[in-house]
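Hi U.,

Before I forget, here's the chain from the pilot set. I'm dumping it here mostly so it's searchable later in email.
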Amino acid sequence: MARRKRGRDLHGILLFDKPAGGSSNQVLQRVRRMFDANKAGHTGSLDPLATGMLPICFGEATKLSSFLIDAAKGYETTLQLGVTTDSCDADGDVTGTFDVPQDLDLSKLKTICDSFLGDQMQVPPMVSAIKVNGQRLYKLAREGVEIERKPRPVTFHSIRLLSFEGDKVRLSVSCSKGTYIRSLVTDIGDKLGCGAHVQELRRTYVAPFEGLPMWTQEQLEQHENADSLLMPVDAGLDHLPKRVLDTAAEQAFFHGQQVVAEALEGEINPSDQVLGEICRIYGSDNQLLGLGAFAEQGRIAPKRVLQMS
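Structure:
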């Protein structure tokens, strides 16, 4: 028996301003119920302590969410120097207290922060959603188990020192996907020799949505038409090549068949298409049909086919 749908068919992306407290999934389910949507997912988890941009995809936009998870991200964070915790943030239990170096100044802090710029190998925190041997690290951490974590490649595009007063430091960080700010803060504390943990953390953007407004739960509840705040399903995909199909090719694409270059609109040289590269596929009415991958002989193979009608 087919499962009965619960909620509306709703398609689009909402830039939600996550409050502190609660997991990203708990926030997602709350927002999904607010919109009475039958399907929703988020792109990139935030720690319970963290606030800020959490893109929420509704309906067919969930099929495209993996192309947003890989995006660069921006954060602002407050470091508490001289105190370490088991979770590397203020939600954890204190594991040690240390004196902050008396000669620490802005110049020394900046030098240390700058040392993390560029490509780095970062050890993820024990309290994280990474799976090792099929188990989430945070579940093992709750059981008091700590295991060795393999360093992972990350990139810090910028680390700006916003303020330094006493034992508090504020940073603005732009980094690649998979980066843990808690690990960065731990590493900075280790270099300072006094330890540190994340006291506050806010995600300021998920590329390519820099500078766009985020919406709080209160704003959504008070808005007379919250649906109007959703961006289209292809928001954030402008970095992918665009191809437009004629009516005949549209039907072939929907049936999972490859479409040929001759069916594409515009002056496109098939030899310029990189095999395997993902592209956006639009119909003759300029509605997104899905995503394809460039194949041999100028063809495009369906990768994600959307059903929004």
